[in-house]
Amino acid sequence: MINYQGSSNKKITVLNETKQMQDIYHNCSELKIVQKVVEDLVVVVVVVVVVVEVVVVVVVVVVVVVVVVVVVVVVVHLIVVTVDAVVEVVVIIVNVVVEAAAAAVVVAVVVVIDAVAVVDVVIVVVEVVVIVVGLVVVVVVVVVDVAVMDVVEAVVLLLLLLLS
Description:
Elements: H1 8-113, H2 118-163
Helix pairs in contact: 1-2
């Protein structure tokens, strides 16, 4: 309490001001407690945000690694399929050449042995043509089949990659 010389109204005013100052001090201490709680909550929120960001970065890295692995697998698969198709075509061409050469030898032997039988020669030539045409058809069918299946398989793999 403050000793104040003067009228009683002034004493009451001083007492009221003292009471107001005590209320302000009390409110300030409560505000400091609230401020401390808010600061602690801000620290917790910052820690949670940092943890979430770290988890997001880890998830992004995992997704990137998975995408890279899928792309590498698709590229390797396409290379293997292409090499396989080329090898199949080469084998088919070699078989056609060998069979055509064998057929030519057979035709030559038949012509020499059966020179008189022109009909036999015509039949052999027709058989050779049928064999060659058949082999060409087989080559075309196999090449088209391999190419179409490889393209379909590549498109499906790329769609799976895009959808994942």
